[in-house]
Amino acid sequence: MARSSRPHRLIVIAGTATEVGKTWVATRLVEGLRERNLTVSARKPAQSFDEDDALTDADHLASVSGEPVDDVCPRHRWYPMPMAPPMAADSLGREPIFLGELLAEVRDGWPGRAPDVGVVELAGGVRSPLGHDGDGIDLILGLAPDLVVLVADAGLGTIHSVRQSVADLAGYPTVVLLNRYDPVTELHRRNLAWLVERERLDPLVEIDSLIGSVLDLMPTYCTGCGRPAADCPGGCSPELDPPRHCPRCGRRLAVTIVPTGVQARCRDHGPIDDWS
Length: 276
Ligand SMILES: [Mg+2]
Ligand SMILES: [Zn+2]
Ligand SMILES: [Zn+2]
Hints:
The protein is of the alpha/beta class. It is 31% helix and 18% strand. The protein has helices spanning 22-35, 57-65, 69-72, 85-91, 99-108, 136-143, 158-168, 186-197, 207-217, and strands spanning 9-15, 40-43, 47-48, 78-79, 117-121, 129-131, 134-135, 147-153, 174-179, 254-258, 261-266, 270-271. The strands form four sheets. The protein has a five-stranded parallel beta sheet with strand order 2-5-1-8-9, sandwiched between helices. A three-stranded antiparallel beta sheet has the order 10-11-12, with no helix packed on it. Bound molecules: magnesium ion and zinc ion (2 copies). Magnesium ion binds next to α1.
């Protein structure tokens, strides 16, 4: 089997329920991180769907991560039956689904060179069954992500489902995203204020804020010496020197002379002036 390297940061996209927009959030996140020159892999451990759907979640994720769709979700984890995956498996007469197998497939399926970020989209809500022996919370326990994004609806019923899911996720670094939030809608505004004031939560309402939260988790490296930023004693780079190391990975940059000056480029992260 080819070598698999765990992403430097692992993000799980979970939901308070199905149809809250997990896939939409996951694809916008993958796109946004790739636009900022990060390397990203997307995974869907198992998916069930309506046979009439033109595109599955894995198709959507693969179209933005640039990976083959069978890398995003292995073909034997596609269940063309709109039920929770273990029920769909039963209904289709397929093998039972065990969480340990899903976890092993994710763990062994990353690219050989660790991507900066791995984005794993779960199915259904956090307590929806993903296998015959476990649910979303159990999968999160096994994945040990750096961040769980709890995608919630912004409208009626969201206070209950957010409070319940946040309680279920206790102990995991979690950020709540109120998807489809419309500041013109009084209910949305009141739901947000309630979660902030009464529940001491800090829900996000925009994808750009989520991208910012993930960027805040990324390690940074000194562009002078290439050491992790926290380990650099300073003074390693004369003031007007071009960067010699990539701030995303610490790798030595290839520097070429161009008509406008010098251009420094990391083989994984592209030209350095593209960073924002
Ligand atoms: Mg989805
Ligand atoms: Zn340094
Ligand atoms: Zn780099």
